[in-house]
Structures are given as C-alpha cells and as structure tokens.
Amino acid sequence: MLPFLKNLIGLNKFLLGKIQDERLYNEAMAFMNSNEFNHAFPLMKQSADLGNKHASVQVAMMLLKGQGAVCDWHSAGEYLQLAIAKGISNVHINLGMIYGIGGYGLKRNLEKAEFHLNKALTEDGDVDAEQMLQMLRKKQPPFGGKEHIRPKLPWK
Fold first, then answer.
1. Exposed, middle or buried, 85 (CB in 10 Å: 0-12/13-18/19+)?
2. Could you tell me the CA-to-CA distances from 95 to 42, 52, 92, 100 in Å, in that order?
3. pLDDT at position 7, please?
4. Domain range for residue 73?
5. How large is the angle between the packed helices 2-33 and 53-65, nearest 10 degrees?
6. Any idea what the CATH number is for the domain that residue 61 is in?
7. Which residues of the chain have pLDDT under 50?
C-alpha cells in the first residue's frame, strides 16, 4: 500500500508541475505579446526550469536578444541544448550561428558551429544552413575575422 501511495503522490506532484509550467508559460507569452519583456522573462524562465520545452526556446531567444535580461549567449546555448534534448527541432541553426559568431559570454567555437549547422541542414531541413555552412568554411562574415568581445548589454 505504501508504494502505491508514494506513486500517487509523485504523480500528483508531476501533474501540478505541468499545470504550473503551462500557466507560467501562458502568462509570460501574454507579457511578450505586449512587449513587456521585463515581466515576461522571469515567468518564462520559471516555466522552462519546470520543464516546459517551448519555454526553453523562448528563454534562449530572449537571452540572445537581451529581452528582459542581459544578452547571455552562453546561457542561451544551454537552453537551446535543453530544448533539443526535449525533442524541439529547428534550433540547431541558432546554435550554429551563436557558436560561429561568439560573444556575449560565449566563446566562438567553429567546430560546434559547423556541427550544429550540419544538423540544421540534415535533420531540420533548414535550407539557410547550407549557405551559412559555406560562409563558415570560407570564414566569411559573420564567421570570419577576429572574434569581437561583446559586452552583456540589452539590445535596443
């Protein structure tokens, strides 16, 4: 009887967490639709941290753009990796771009950039990835030249 009760309590906690992460996600989206990013970001981050896979992508994009938080490409990359692990497709192109450009707390890594751009092309079917791969291999901007250290500032 005790294992049954433990399983039932665990299921209740799981379901309450799902309800809460959806509520937070919906509230955050409402703030985002009103361009109130300072209110949206903490809610979206809570939802992502509770396991909402769509919130993980939104948090990453907000961190990339500095919406409601400072630009932090390193953390954005972590949230994009989390989204991939949860089965979200079409984020490899973003990882390829940020690793290829570098900055805002993320060190440029051309090998990781090429890996993710290849994944974007082969797994996600993103046709833009092919052109980015060519630019990366030829070290054309934004992938070529010296890496620019970018301060962690919000985008305007």
1. exposed
2. 22, 19, 5, 8
3. 57
4. 2-137
5. 40
6. 1.25.40.10
7. 5, 8, 11, 15, 155-156
